[in-house]
């Protein structure tokens, strides 16, 4: 049996917590943060497909990394609203809710997503 790393345990703990109360009408907004960029996607877990995505690599916004993350959140919200999605559940994965992750969430809220 494989021993889980601390990062994997945090990820599974977060996903388990958001999976329990979520009804079928909400999709999952998943965040990945690398050293240079931030990526976000809205996933329909029932179908196993990505509905909308945005990342700082393709958008190439200027400014600090937190400003870039906020721009990614706003771009993701625009794409989600175009696809007819308003309500999501925020999956921060193993990352704490501060810095770039918090900026992305605030940008998505300002763009019109509810979570």
Structural commentary:
The protein is an alpha+beta fold and 115 residues long. The protein has one domain (6-111): Nucleotidyltransferase, domain 5, CATH 3.30.420.100. It contains 4 helices and 4 strands; from the N terminus they run αβββααβα. It has helices spanning 6-19, 56-59, 65-82, 100-111; strands at 27-33, 38-44, 49-55, 88-91. A hairpin with a 4-residue loop joins strand 1 and strand 2 (38-44).
Brief sketch in words of this structure:
The chain is an alpha+beta fold and 115 residues long. It has helices at residues 6-19, 56-59, 65-82, 100-111; strands at residues 27-33, 38-44, 49-55, 88-91.
Query: What is the SS-derived class?
Result: alpha+beta
Rounded to the nearest angstrom, the radius of gyration is 14 Å
Gap from first CA to last CA = 36 Å
Q: How many domains in all?
A: 1
Q: State the low-pLDDT regions, or none.
A: none
**Strand numbers in spatial order across the main sheet:** 3-2-1-4
Sketch the major β-sheet.
4 strands, mixed
Helix coverage percent of residues?
40-55%
Q: At the first level of CATH, what is the class?
A: Alpha Beta
The chain-level mean pLDDT equals 91
* CATH topology name: Nucleotidyltransferase, domain 5
Order of helices and strands: HEEEHHEH
């Amino acid at each position: 049996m494989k021993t889980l790393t601390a990062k994997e345990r945090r990820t599974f703990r977060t996903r388990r917590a958001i999976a329990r109360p979520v009804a079928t009408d909400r999709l999952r907004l998943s965040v990945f943060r690398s050293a240079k960029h931030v990526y976000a996607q809205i996933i329909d877990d029932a179908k196993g497909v990505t509905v909308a995505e945005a990342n700082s690599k393709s958008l190439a916004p200027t400014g600090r990394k937190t400003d870039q993350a906020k721009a990614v959140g706003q771009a993701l919200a625009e794409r989600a609203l175009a696809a007819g999605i308003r309500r999501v559940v925020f999956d921060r994965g193993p990352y704490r809710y501060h810095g770039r992750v918090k900026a992305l969430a605030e940008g998505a809220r300002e763009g019109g997503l509810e979570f």
